[in-house]
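2 proteins. here.
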Amino acid sequence: MKSKYWILTASALVSVSAFAQKEELKEAEKQLRRGNLAESQTALTQASSVIESAPDADKAKYYYIKAELHLELAKKKNDETANLVNASKAYLTLNDIETQMGKLKLFKESAENILTLRNALLSSAVNDNQEQKYDDASKKLHSSYLLNKNDTIHLYYAASSAVQGQDFNTALEYYKELAKLGFTGKSKMYTAVNKTTNEVDNFGFNQSTRDLAVKAGSHTNPQIVKEESKRGEIIKNIALIYNQNGDVENAKKAIYDARKENPDDISLIVTEANMYLESKEMDKYQALIKEAVTKDPNNADLYYNLGVVSANAKDLEAAKANYLKAIALNPKLENAYINLASVLLDGEKAIVEKMNKLGNSAADNAKYDELKKKREDIFKSTIPYLEKVLEVNPSNAEAGMTLANIYSVLGQYEKAKALKAKFAK
């Protein structure tokens, strides 16, 4: 008898607990509908302690209320990031529970609120990115993606925000998922000019809505904006993050797979080249940059990179030619002018050494004058490029002081004095 007594008591406790839990859920929902969010949260917190052992129907109700509560709190800008993300997590848990139950009753009823939530996540993420709150933006964009995995573009933007926020491991996770899904981001966006605001409105992928707006007379000048494939960029970023983390083998594999799929993608070629640059494999680096140049002959940065490689290899004529080509393609490429001047000045030190070794004989004096003329010619050849640096960037003190010293050697003292007054510390 004693044993049965305790069994009955335990059963009664469970029943009382379940009853109390249902009452707390009812109270939480009632207060939520009345707009009493603090009271609703209190009742929901009381129910949370035993919710995991509750029947699936009660669990579903709990997460349904929880999702709506967090959404309402977010609307009031109350810890917006946490509440938006928590609302999305609650809706996802609700979906999982009802999927196991075999019916999506409450989740379907939440369709309008989920759409509101996704719009809030996206709008808030845009603001976060503008305010450089990249971590918050990435979380919100990822939450939006999880609520509707058909919108893989949100996962792409979540990865981009993670990169901006220097959270490379999270970015790598998202980029790998995008690569696995075969995401390209290649699409057509439909736009038209709003007659009232005279601004371009983006109708996204919805051509019919755009066309109806034009037909109704509210918009004009319909256009199609094409988004190019982002797959090369995704694989490139995967490789860069692997490489940054010291995982060179996975970095090389990512690039190999990407280039096999996109052999003409310049960004992938340059990424692979930079990997070899970091590992000091200069022959492979140079070969890849040359390959990139053949595919994109009007890219000033590629010629600049070839100039750097050539200069490091002491092939000064090739360096000079590549820097000149880079400048011709991009007259504002500041570093190309600086490096070109450096290449031209490379022989000056050797000339000075020879001058210092000469004696006082007539032959030595003649040789001295010859070497002095060569040195002055070198200085004169650099002046246009150093002046161009200051034209592109008037605050470049290194170029300014170098040019001032050259003016002094050449006897152009007024020019030297003016530059020294500006740049001397």
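next one coming up
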Amino acid sequence: MLTHLDSQGRANMVDVTEKAVTEREATAEARVRMLPQTLQMIVDGEHPKGDVFAVARIAGIQAAKKTSDLIPLCHPLMLTSVKVELSAEGEDAVRILARCKLAGQTGVEMEALTAASVAALTIYDMCKAVDKGMVIEQVRLLEKLGGKSGHYKVQA
């Protein structure tokens, strides 16, 4: 059932007034594939624009907090925790893991996905001068806890 549509098929924001406040958490990931020399430059801290991971981490945190400004039908949420972790994966990729938490009436999947996506876009933005062929891939929800639908974890 698509809960963002009313009985006439029009988009609307879901009414969560009657939902219980529960602890909710979501974890999402994204990957950025790049040339091995681009990743090496990032890892070695030799990027002319500065610490790519630090800037992408801050961008992801900010994005999670602004999700309702970006996704029209998302509720503005009082997040209690946003963590964005970036790490080199192999010789040609960065893995981004974003985790969002709150005690509230609706889930934080979109906030986690937005954090991972914007962190990936920030890496692209900072590195595009040296590697325009980067690919942002595998943006996906890994796990979600809390709420009526319960626990979801991606199958490996």
